[in-house]
Task: structure prediction
Amino acid sequence: MFMPLFQMVDGSNTVDSEQLGHLSFLIKGLEVVGIELSLMTILIVMLTFFSIKGIMKFFESYNKVLYQQYFMKKIRISNINNLANFSYDNFVKSDSGKIQNTFSGEVLKVSKAYNSYFTAVQYGVLVVVYVFLAFLSNPEFAILVTIGGLITNLIFKGLYSKTKKISKQLTLQNHTFQGLLIQKVGFFKYLKASGLITNYAKKLKSNINEIENSQRKMGFISSLLQAVREPLVILVVVVVILIQVELFSENLGLIILSLLFLYRSLTFVMAMQKYWNDFLTNSGSLENMTNFTRELETGKEKHGKIAFQKFINKISLKGVSYSYDDTQILKEINLDISKNEIVAIVGESGSGKTTLINLLSGLQTPSTGQVIIDDYNLNELNTHTYQNRTGYITQEPVIFNDTIFNNVTFWDKKNDFNLIRFYSALKRASIDTFVKTQPNQEDELLGNNGINISGGQKQRLSIARELYKEVDILFMDEATSALDSETEKAIQENIDTLKGELTIIIIAHRLSTIRNADRIVMLNNGRIEHVGSFEDLRSASPNFKRIVELQGI
Ligand SMILES: Nc1ncnc2c1ncn2[C@@H]1O[C@H](COP(=O)(O)OP(=O)(O)OP(=O)(O)O)[C@@H](O)[C@H]1O
Ligand SMILES: [Mg+2]
Result:
């Protein structure tokens, strides 16, 4: 662009400013501000021009990054909020690989899809403008080229739909990959110990191969499109020129003029097609994200409006039944639990014990009947406020990969006041001595899912977490796996120390742990068979008596 200017200052060549085309404003501008055209001024102008261009380029690309990041953050945050409000009933039916993948890789792909879509639209507008200009200079020619262009698009259409299909397939394959990976990490110990880790790796590898295969197919189509695009467009122009010259004996000069506009428009057509294909490459992710968001929104937990303050009096189950699809799990349960009572739930595996405490904790809602907390039906309460006052120790205690302090306080501030609360919670859960003997005491790291501590310690730390939270009601689902006698004793002691302080509803597999419970509820096939003290049940329930004898109590 600057060449003609150099020619102008070089005396041997005379170039008039007309030849500068678009740049002639530069000379006029310089004349207006009284700057003489010399090598120096041209060099300065050139440097300034490109510096400004550089600055603009910076803002353009930085802005793009900002918008993209903002957009991705928005999607992620909205998904995280939606997931937090997703009901447990729906969560158990969902696919963890899908959740993981949609939250991570898919977000970037969605953002890319939007980017390519809008760029394609941008080029689309330019195409229309230039076709319009070509149309003004030579309507016949422009129409013929447009028809030719549309025909080539039909050829591309097949390839586009293939890209779209593979993109969808790729998203599903990535879900599977993430799902397999989560399980590999989660079940690492078992896979390693059982030697099944190599078999499992085969599964992952075959999934990786499938992903690579889809990517390759997509790459093939995209390369094909890129290669075919230009020759095809030129073919259209050649055919149209021939038709015009041979059939309509058109003037070649006129054709060339509109060809200039068409040339521009055709380059834009090619760019538009490229971005459209890029969009389709990620369209599977877009569809997945839309469906995922819809799934989370429709599966939202239903909340009542009343904020729960404090548990005062009693919990009542009134004619509660629960079914998974067509199978009734709990049948007509009627039970009252008073404040600070310890109620144990026992029964065979699959009799509905976990389901029962899920209903009491507001995790699941009864199919029929009511759960009444003091004066409120649980479904009138805002479940979050209720769950803030209740603790839940799941069948597999939850330990985060962090320090003991953070695990118990749930990342509370570490100040003197909280440290006192922390140690008091540890003491009540009978785990203070263990923590004090650790090299880093409360700052000791626990590893993935508490890999560095024993099953019983995990359980006691989980109890400490609930006690630190200051709950009114504690739900405990004792691990099914046989507890060692030390842990069994510790749990029994824990329960005994907490007696009278908290309302505890505990599912017990080892009956020795609940010897001192106020009442024991015997579940049989989803129905309450007996309710009473340990001794009451021993004489009233043959089932209970049998288990007591089996466990040698
Ligand atoms: N998400 C689910 N979908 C369908 N059925 C389920 C689901 N969860 C549990 N069940 C069924 O509900 C029944 C009761 O399960 P629950 O977990 O309450 O038993 P449990 O008494 O706690 O058993 P365990 O002592 O083995 O822990 C079982 O038959 C189980 O198969
Ligand atoms: Mg259970």
